[in-house]
Design goal:
Blueprint lengths: L15 H9 L1 H10 L3 H7 L1 H4 L3 H11 L5 H13 L3 H16 L19 E12 L6 E12 L3 E10 L4 E11 H19 L5 E3 L2 H18 L5 H5 L1 H9 L19 H14 L2 H6 L13 H15 L2 E10 L11 H10 E11 L17 E3 L4 E13 L2 E9 H6 L3 H21 L8 H24 L4 H13 L3 H14 L6 H21 L3 H21 L3 H13 L3 H14 L3 H17 L3 H14 L6 H11 L3 H14 L4 H13 L3 H14 L4 H13 L3 H14 L4 H14 L1
Antiparallel strand pairs: 1-2, 1-5, 2-3, 3-4, 6-7, 7-9, 8-9, 9-10
């Protein structure tokens, strides 16, 4: 059964009020049917429906057939099975067929009729089961089947969708039919599941004992998270208890974990940390090697229970992985035969990860060996930054975690000279990469990733130096610069607050407060994107406070500009204009003047004051012709005024000034399409694609041009390429709809 849904409740005959009442009662009646254990009890559940006259029953059946939920189907099936009136049974059957056309089927199964035994009806016995080998994803699907009936020609299927993060028993279905029918359903289920996730899923056999173990673990999630299992499961609980939870004829439980055995070592570590932060501690235990000291010699249930208690107090949230890589193998100081080295490499791997997590302090954190030390902590959010490494061994043809090292804590035990040398080595390597490789060369991504993980390692070394040298301002500056370069706003704030705390009288404290306000504003924006409005507003207010403090210390134009732009992001234009006017009165710096004019122009654009916006953007161009986007914005303002010739002139200047900006090509191409100058549109969009071959926007525009020219084949080809790159882009979806409409 499902939750009550809206349907067509119109009743064509009889006492409308009474029939409306009976129609609304279908959910309670269906629940009584599921709880019934005999046909007599099922007939009692229907008594209120079957006691009304035949015409009203017919009207009710027609209304039930229009309800889009399985509860209506259950009631129709019960009436079809149990009522003695042939006409009523036929109408109920029609209703079932109508609902089946909408893919809505009954989930209740009537009890068989009692009477003289003409054949032996066999009780259910376990037949077979299978499970998706996806336990590492925090969920899996189990299907269990029993054979029953005369000569075991029938079968019952139960399917469970289990979620080990939050929902426990997330979904449940059951069905009874011939064994041939159930076999066909099993085949369809396997195909459907693989298609739904978009990849091949391994589906393996499982015993009843193994299935029960997984279901019981999911139910423990329901208990821990205080969430009820799915409604369908609850309605069928007596049957589940009889055949699964209280079954006595269990076969062997091999202890399979149902984790994909083909996971690489880095995937094992990533899944271990991810599951640990999300509360899937059963998976974490299963990813440990059998002799791992991290298991502490505890049983699986004991290990999981301790960590659930920790999670209830620590409230882990907002996990962020920063890098994940295989460790570089250090040179062996002792000579070993090459065969020994080869075996060691084949059976042991080292993976390191930099990650962070929001946590609340709790004494239980110190009781878990896998809990690392945070080398930096942002008290406002409770976020901690960790650096850990893991040794993995091959065990039963799969990688498992044997031991862990807290690299962040180890760094803090190094002497100052060693930490400084390691930082120098990192800086030398990053400089070497920057000098040897260009951003546009093939394969540059691996060097970009190397810069990231080396920079994050450097941050942990900086943290260690700050423990030993808390009054060395240069370390804070170095750490802040690295965090800002990686756009790690929270971590940047940690170092800025450290400077403010330890060096409140420094000559540049006003600038530090400015940087703090900018970082807090960036964090506010991140929370806004994540729809966490309360936190977004909190950090917005913190940013305002920091910027106002910076103005008190140093009443600089730049602080007013930053404050104005912060107001602009929250649609507080009047306050933004006031701050920009103050900034104008405080500066003679040409770059700052250009920024002020650009911000005022943007506000004018938002209010559709296009003449003012054009005048201000032109003033920006006079001050700095290379100001980012200035020519494009002038063209955009003219286009919104439908002054297409002027817009074309400035779009062309934008293309000349910034040939690597695809937006200029897109805007100019769109303008040419509007002006019906398709040859020019084709030329400029193709020019843009030479610079940006992976621009879904430009490929969609090219499809539009070909479509306007009547070349449907090329239009379809370009649209297919745009959809391959980014099918969710608005212009791509619009182009798809346009071509579809033209085809029709």
């Amino acid at each position: 059964m499902t939750a009550k849904k809206q349907g067509d409740s119109s009743v064509p005959h009889g006492d409308n009020a009474q029939l409306e009442h009976l129609l609304e009662q279908r959910h309670e009646i269906a629940e009584e049917l599921h709880n019934s254990t005999s046909r007599a009890q099922a007939e009692t559940a229907l008594a209120e429906l079957t006691s009304i006259d035949e015409a009203d029953q017919m009207a009710l059946l027609k209304a039930l057939a229009k309800q889009q939920d399985p509860d209506a189907a259950d009631v129709l099936l019960a009436i079809n099975e149990l009522t003695p009136n042939k006409a009523i049974r036929k109408e109920a059957r029609r209703g079932l067929i109508q609902l089946a056309g909408a893919k809505i089927y009954p989930s209740w199964t009537p009890e068989p009729e009692t009477g003289p035994a003409v054949a032996v009806t066999n009780p259910p016995r376990f037949w077979k089961g299978f499970v998706t080998e996806t336990r590492e994803e925090g969920e899996l699907e189990i299907v269990l089947c029993w054979e029953q009936g005369f000569e075991y020609s029938e079968a019952r299927l139960m399917a469970f969708m289990l979620d080990f993060w939050e929902e426990g028993v997330q979904n449940f279905t059951t069905e009874v039919g011939s064994k041939r029918h159930i076999d066909a359903r099993l085949g369809n289920t396997k195909v459907r599941y693989s298609k739904s996730v978009g990849r091949e899923i391994r589906i393996i056999d499982c015993t009843l004992a193994e299935g029960r173990r997984l279901i019981q673990e999911a139910l423990s999630i329901n208990t821990w998270r205080e969430k009820r299992p799915s409604k369908e499961y609850r309605h069928n609980l007596p049957t589940v208890q009889q055949l699964v939870l209280n079954a006595s004829d269990l076969d062997e439980d091999s202890g399979k974990t149902f984790i994909n055995p083909d996971l690489d070592p880095d995937e094992i570590v990533g899944n271990f940390i991810g599951a640990w932060t999300l509360g899937d501690f059963g998976l974490c235990f299963d990813l440990l090697a059998s002799d791992s000291p991290l298991s502490e010699g505890l049983s699986r249930d004991e290990w999981v229970d301790l960590r659930r208690k920790w999670a209830d107090e620590a409230h882990p949230a907002r996990y962020e992985p920063h890098f994940l890589r295989e460790r570089e193998r250090s040179q062996q100081s002792l000579w070993l035969p090459s065969s020994v080295l080869s075996d060691r490499v084949a059976t042991q791997r080292e993976i390191e990860i930099g990650w962070s997590l929001e946590l609340t302090d709790t004494p239980l954190s110190g009781t878990m060996p896998e809990m690392p030390m945070g080398t930096a902590v942002y008290k406002e959010t409770g976020r901690r930054w960790f650096w850990t490494s893991y040794t993995l061994v091959h065990e039963e043809d799969a990688w498992r975690i044997q031991r862990m090292k807290d690299e962040g804590a180890n760094a803090q035990s190094l002497p100052i000279a060693e930490l400084q040398q390691r930082l120098q080595t990192i800086d030398d390597r990053i400089r070497e990469i920057m000098e040897a490789h260009k951003p546009t060369e093939p394969g540059v991504e691996q060097y970009y990733e190397e810069i990231i993980w080396r920079t994050i390692q450097a941050l942990h070394y900086d943290d260690a130096l700050l423990v030993k040298l808390p009054l060395d301002r240069t370390i804070y500056d170095d750490a802040y610069s690295r965090a800002r370069g990686l756009q790690l706003s929270e971590r940047a704030i940690v170092y800025l607050e450290g400077i403010i705390q330890h060096f409140p009288k420094d000559h540049d404290i006003g600038n530090i407060l400015q940087h703090l306000g900018v970082s807090q504003a960036g964090l506010s924006g991140q929370y806004k994107q994540d729809n966490m409005d309360e936190l977004s507003e909190h950090f917005f207010e913190l940013a305002l406070e920091s910027l106002r403090k910076s103005i008190v210390v140093n009443n600089a134009a730049l602080a007013h500009i930053i404050l104005a732009e912060l107001f602009m992001t929250n649609n507080r234009e009047e306050e933004a204009v006031a701050e920009l006017q103050l900034a104008q009165s405080l500066t003679s710096d040409r770059d700052e003047e250009a920024q002020i004019e650009a911000d005022l122009a943007s506000i004018a654009m938002g209010h559709q004051n296009y003449d003012e916006a054009i005048a201000r953007f032109k003033r920006v161009a006079e001050i700095n012709p290379n100001y980012n986007g200035v020519w494009l914005n002038i063209g955009l303002a003219y286009r919104r005024q439908e002054k297409y010739d002027e817009a074309e002139t400035y779009y062309q200047r934008a293309v000349e000034a910034q040939p690597n900006d695809f937006v200029a090509y897109a805007e100019l191409g769109t303008l040419y399409i509007v002006k019906k100058q398709l040859d020019k549109a084709l030329e400029i969009v193709e020019q843009g694609l030479r610079y940006h071959p992976n621009s879904a926007h430009l490929h969609a525009l090219l499809a539009a041009i070909y479509s306007e020219n009547g070349d449907r084949r090329r239009a379809q080809s370009e649209l297919a390429e745009a959809e391959r790159i980014n099918p969710d882009l608005e212009v791509v979806q619009a182009m798809r709809e346009m071509l579809h409409t033209k085809r029709k």
